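Hi W.,

Here's what went into the run:
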Amino acid sequence: MPQLRMTGRGLWITVLIVPPLAFVALFIVYPILSAFAYAFFDWQGLRRLDFVGLENFHTVLFVEPYRSWTLNAFRNNVIVFFALMVLQNGLGFLLAYALWRELPGARFHRIAVFLPVVLSTIIVAYLFKLFYHPLFGVVNITLKSIGLGWLAQPWLGQGGTALWALIVAQAWHMVGFPTLVFLAGMQRIPGEILDAARMETESEWVKITKIVWPLVAPSATIVFTLLFVGAFNWFELPYIMAGLDGSPFGSTDVLGLYFYRTAFGNVSAGQQDFGLGSALAVLIFLFIAAIATVITVRLRAREIQL
Amino acid sequence: MSAAADNAYYQRRGILGTLGRDGLLQIILIANTIIMLAPIIIMVFSAFKTTPQIFQSPFSLPDFSHIGNFVKIWTETNFLRYLLNSFVVTGASMVLILTLGTMAAYAIGRYQFTGSGFILMFFLAGLTLPLKLAIIPLFMLMRDLSILNNQLSLIFVYTAMGLPTTVFIMTGFIRTLPNELEDAARMDGASEARIMWSIMLPLVRPAMVIAGIQNVVPIWNDFFFPLVFIQNDNLKTLPQGLTTFMGEYTTDWGVLFAGLTLSAAPIILIYIVLSKQFIAGMTSGAVK
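Here's what came out:
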């Protein structure tokens, strides 16, 4: 009887665990492992040809024009990451600190700041594309109506401002996320620590930098890592607002667009190339994994256990 | 914080100093809320205006009885079809995610067996991997399964993507449930399946809500996978259909804003009702 019971139980566990495992194995693990394998072959359309070793990697890193495209897209991703670090995470921290005071209306402000986060990126991207329209967009109309008409410009149409216009739209979309993660971190700070801090210092600045900031370090670790992964995977918003080529003239080209364009082709680049596309995917993947690990380990080290 | 400490603090600092600091923070919050809401309000207002009205006075209150733009969308476009498709794909994915996720979490969290730690690690590995970068092999896989241009491709990918977070959240929760009920039922000779279904499942509903919300928003909003897998206009989901629609009506801004408003409306309305659950669910991965 105990023997029978054990096997019955083993069968029951197998029934529970195998279907979900199969989904993850087939649709996540297998494709990711395959992406590594694909990068070592020559491809013609959907047909796999010869094994070419590291040639695809060599091409995207060192052979023109791929080399410049890769560098340009990478550089833009770096700009996006650091800009969002300030606009999204920095502002998020400030807003969280303000919300934490539980001033009148805090509940309403909290709901408002998170509202854009639930919207589809596609809606946000089109909305801001209309707002940035050179003639009829609200941005330029507002500038003209308050006497700053000389500042009005084709925000998405010129290399100097296009990427920044996208970054502002992205920050508007997502600032609520770090805000509420930081807020949850601040709410976990024990009251005694805050009382003690108030007795010690008058300065708001000292309290923020010496007490609050170190104590929300676990929130910072997560928010920084997620922003890093997100910034180097950026695709939807530039795809809708600037197009697959990162117009104008590649000024908004990022690795996500470049990878997609290389893999699946587009009007101007023509041919699709799964080999070069996979090599790019593997490089982006390794870069994200390496830096995200470093960020997590470095930031974890400064977290304080309460 | 204690009242005594508060009093001492206010006395030392002075009521004006406190008001000044809080006033500044309040101004920051109000300014930010205006910035957060203004684009959405302009979008909704513009949906009730004609294109010339939008160009001339983008901020004015519209005549809310003017619903010509919505009528146009209703009668001239595939919009309802996209909306329906989004409901079908999201609904099917959520049913699969919650069913399979609970099964795995229950097995890992409730039974001790060899390899359970490894299996949990296997699921967790899926948490951090950006699946977008595996889109080429996924495309080939869907082709080999003959489900390109078929919503099953989306449902399968979303299910696989949703499982890691769901297993993570649910396993942690299921482990905290007490053993007594389960043991008592086992003594009475209830089968394992019966124990899970009748006794344990009713208890895990709160975790299911959190896991559900965390997954439903990204799935409902996803654009990337339909972009690669779906070509047929009748199968497109809402965000993807929106790109078709925006391309067709480029000069009719009233209709464009109405389309954006209609696309945003379902999730905004649900969010306003369930904001607490939404915030808890969507940040649950990042808040320990």
